[in-house]
Amino acid sequence: MRSPTLRNLLIHVALTYVLCFMLNGTIHEGAHAVVAKILGLHPVLHHNYVSSTGGDQLPVNLRILTPAAGPMASLIQAIVFLWLLRTTQRKSLLTLFYLWMSVMGFINIGGYLMLTPLIPYGDTGRVFAMLDSPMWLQWLVALASLAGSIWVIRNFTNDFEHQIPEVLRDQPYKPGQLPNLLIAYPTFIGVAITTLLSLPVPTFVSILYPATSPFIVFIVYGQLRRKKQNLVGRAGYPEKISIILIALTTIFIVITRLLVQGVEL
Question: Which has more pLDDT, 58 or 241?
Fold first, then answer.
């Protein structure tokens, strides 16, 4: 990888992936903690879960709000950042951030819904259990979420393609090179880093999320690899690796590790 543009693309995407993953998790768990605090449950916010006491004293219509808050926050996050992405004409490092924040929000909500009948102690599993939902309905929701997640992620194909540096637009076409730098390599790097940052975990399932869920973006990877002509890059990136991006990623790594011990709200 001799070209600085290609090298910088890989580094920028990998850093953005790690930053967005940790911020995505903080938003999700923070929503649980804030709602629990409002309900008077004395929550303790950790890097990948929230513990609280006193929830059994609440009626079901209030108790359900705490587990539902995380997935709802992820859905709102996905929609808000999708709107920002699609309404920002100039593609840049900022829209790369919007892109991954939206994708990870959709992965979150879709993943929780897909696992509803399999993990009764998960967020949506607890919600459906509190509602006494029949198992057939939970499986229907899971299957619909699987199909919906595939459709949603597939529709990010053009957004990923437009995040390719514009300066590469007229370069000779090399199948796989740009999809590798834009999706494959950063995802492998990001998964390795974020999985380690997710330790320790309260349950085995908790480690499966950072280790496996992001690979759904390989739907987009396959779409881009199958294209027979040059990919249409529209993004402008800094000539050097963004110091701001490095700083933000470092800050959120530190925050994530501090939350391992838990912060009582």
Answer: 241
List pLDDT tens digits, range 120-151: 888 899 999 999 999 999 999 999 999 999 99
Contact 182, 6 (CB under 8 A): no
Instruction: Give Cβ neighbours of residue 2 (< 8 Å, ≥ 6 apart).
Output: none
In angstroms, the Cα distances linking 199 to 20, 109, 110, 253 are 17, 22, 23, 12
Q: What is the pLDDT of residue 1?
A: 47
pTM above 0.90, yes or no: yes
Peptide bond into 43 cis (omega under 30): no
CB-CB contact of 28 with 105 (8 Å): no
Residue 172 has pLDDT above 70, yes or no: no
Q: Around Cβ 83, how many Cβ atoms within 10 Å?
A: 12
Give the tens place of pLDDT for each residue, 39-50.
Answer: 988 899 998 889
3-state helix, strand, coil in the chain (%, to 5): 70, 5, 25
Structural domain spans, the chain: 4-264
**Whole-number Å distance between alpha carbons of 18 and 38:** 30
Q: Confirm if 176 and 225 have CB atoms less than 8 A apart.
A: yes
Sign of CA dihedral 69, 74, 75, 81: positive
E-state strands within the chain: 44-45, 50-51, 91-92, 235-236, 263-264
Distance CA 78, CA 82 (A): 6
The four Cα atoms 214, 92, 95, 6 give a dihedral, to 10 degrees, of 0
